[in-house]
Design goal:
about 130 residues, alpha+beta, Glutaredoxin, four-stranded mixed beta sheet, 4 helices, about 55% helix, elongated
Length: about 130
């Protein structure tokens, strides 16, 4: 009587593990396209002359970076704790500050949708 229970337990365990791997696979597979599109969006911002000024200790800057994930590497970014002179020249008073090619600026967090609207860069499809 214990053999059927053991077989059932093994089969159930196998199915649960299989489902977990299947879900993770589908999640990573679908995020690849969005990740590449987000890379292109971030690169477009850079190409359009958009720069974010911030500080490593700024929680709003961290939130802003999280919106981009690993694609933030493509964003033109100035770390004001390391490049104080550049931030003073740009009269940065708060973090994050986004400066656009036309000289306009946005102080504080800004959504990806607003960045897309301001720059004409194509936002990734969710």
């Amino acid at each position: 009587m214990q053999k059927p229970i053991l077989k059932f337990t093994i089969v159930c365990t196998f199915l649960v593990v299989f489902l977990i791997f299947a879900i993770l696979f589908l999640k990573f597979k679908s995020s690849g396209a969005n990740g590449q599109q987000l890379d292109q969006f971030a690169q477009c911002l850079k190409d359009k002359g958009v720069t974010m000024y911030g500080a490593y200790w700024c929680s709003h800057c961290q939130n802003q970076k999280k919106l981009f994930g690993s694609s933030f590497a493509y964003v033109s970014y100035v770390e004001c704790t390391q490049d104080v002179k550049k931030c003073e020249e740009q009269k940065i008073k708060g973090y994050p500050t986004w400066i656009f090619a036309d000289g306009s600026r946005n102080e504080g967090e800004i959504s990806l949708e607003d960045l897309a609207g301001k720059t004409g860069c194509t936002l990734p499809v969710k």
